[in-house]
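=== RUN LOG ===
request id: a7f3
mode: sequence -> structure
chains: 1
length: 192
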Amino acid sequence: MKKNFLKLVPFFIMASFLVTGCNQDTSSTASAVKPVVEAKAQKPQGPSYKGNVVGLSNKAKSISIQVGKGKKAQTIMVKFDDNTKGVEHASKGHASIIFYEMRDGQPWATVVKPKLAKMPKGVTEIKVAELQDIIESETNFVLIDARPAARYAAGHIEGSINVGVKTYKKVAFGVLPKDKDTLLVMYCGGPT
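=== RESULT ===
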């Protein structure tokens, strides 16, 4: 049993990385998101803040980002303007990297990039078209929706099993296949 548990460790590591992008409800967000490739093409330089976006005001043209952990965590307000690249990546609840420059003693964002989790060893990313091919080929696999139960209930891919990040420790062992060679496919609702 212990040996089988160790084989599942990569699954649990990947699930823990999904926390940032999977618990945010962005269903009310009306703006179109530009491809991540655009932000990756940037070669930003200078100081940066890394953390979770806790607020965005298009009217005030400011982003609030929480940096640090625990008692050392602090919220910093960074202004942006029409020249700031990647503002669409400053989604509340998502991890971002904000490169900035100082103007009149205040940080002004130059580039905003999503802060994506690195995939654990042995885990690979697949695209929607690849998942469609797997479904159509009737390959033996387990599809896990890692979003919160409320979002799963609102809509999900047919045949998927809801194992939300907050509940995976309680339910994962009951839904994971006995055959350790079975393909596991997980999806969530945001960048990871």
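=== NOTES ===
The two ends are 30 Å apart (CA to CA).
DSSP finds six helices and eight strands in the chain.
=== END ===
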